[in-house]
């Protein structure tokens, strides 16, 4: 007991002890309730059991008739992440802020009470209207091209029994 | 009974500072190459504070917005995030530079996550580890170093318990499903590479991908012993490296920056008794 970390820590400095005790207890509590508030992180990613799906959608960027490669080894992961993750969120949101939508679904009755706080700091319809301009500017900047016309396609792919994937349908979803 | 607390002497502090900020400089270069530094983000328009109140506060203060929309500020923060760590390497005994680093790091941290529209954990090591060097007190540094060690153990153990609690181990097709969803784009575009062949083999053999996922989860669970002894720290050092490397190669998830927390397992950086 006398050798325990927190015992020694509190003997060294009560202020530091309380700070770290708060950090650790907050982290445990956050994980118990499943709500993350920095710096109390929840480490539940990829923990929910998933069933395989035969079809998956893959983004395809065509800049002035040239398909942009975002998966090969010379494209860093974070570039791929920044090029596709906001786009996936934008596509799934149908012009509505994901943060607001999530809160509305969880606290339907009380949403109006927090709306004055959350709505000024989350994207509005004007931000959504400018998203594709940003997407084009980011890709142009990241790839070092001048892009006149960007076509964003969603390729529906199907997994085969040997693990390979083949396209079954291509849909032009955005053009800018 | 008074038990003498171990200390972090000046030599250890210097080595720890070098490793911490050396890793950050590598991460900064990778992020420059990946085009995700503030000045390269092209002033994103959609943010994602989600239900994290700290992000709400950051957005109330307009920190992510100002850091990305004002080009001069964006360049200044990016440059500071390179120059301050260099100063830390040159003057490891000074505590003002690690404090300054954290002040400049926070806008980057919030901007990357909110405009990337996912609250990723890859950068959290750089939120905590530099705090060790905020103090010059040899014992305070020791206790902070040990806190980072417990926090690193916690990351892995917590991830294990989430998997255990949600029935991860009872879904034999989980490994296949995760590889299919995280690697669809890669397999579509690069299916013929050696990695593509490996991924296809794992996807077409669900029992093998399940075994790998279970092995990874058990590896995470094994960190629980670290709360009771430091004897396995060398194993934890390498286990964390193998874990992050494997998730990078197989699942396209980059957590290598989290390896900065490994300085708490590094046998050549152990505090003096």
Protein described:
The complex is a heterodimer of chains A (176) and B (273). Chain A has 176 residues and is of the alpha+beta class. Helices cover 45% and strands 18% of the residues of chain A. Chain A has seven helices and four strands; from the N terminus they run ααββαααααββ. Chain A has helices spanning 5-12, 14-33, 77-93, 98-106, 111-118, 125-129, 131-143, and strands spanning 55-63, 66-67, 150-159, 165-175. Chain A has a four-stranded antiparallel beta sheet with strand order 2-1-3-4, with no helix packed on it. Chain A is extended, with a radius of gyration of 23 Å. By secondary structure, chain B is mainly alpha-helical. The mean pLDDT of chain B is 93. In chain B, helix 3 packs across helix 5 and helix 8 (174-190) packs across helix 10 (206-221). Chain B is globular. Helices cover 64% and strands 0% of the residues of chain B. The chains are: A alpha+beta (176), B mainly alpha (273).
User: Helix fraction of chain A?
Assistant: 40-55%
Secondary structure class of chain A reads: alpha+beta
Q: What is the N-to-C order of secondary-structure elements of chain A (H for helix, E for strand)?
A: HHEEHHHHHEE
Number of discrete helical segments of chain A: 7
Q: State the end-to-end CA separation of chain B.
A: 17 Å
Distance between the termini of chain A: 65 Å
Give the overall average pLDDT of chain A: 92
Number of strands of chain B: 0
Question: What is the molecular shape of chain B?
Answer: globular
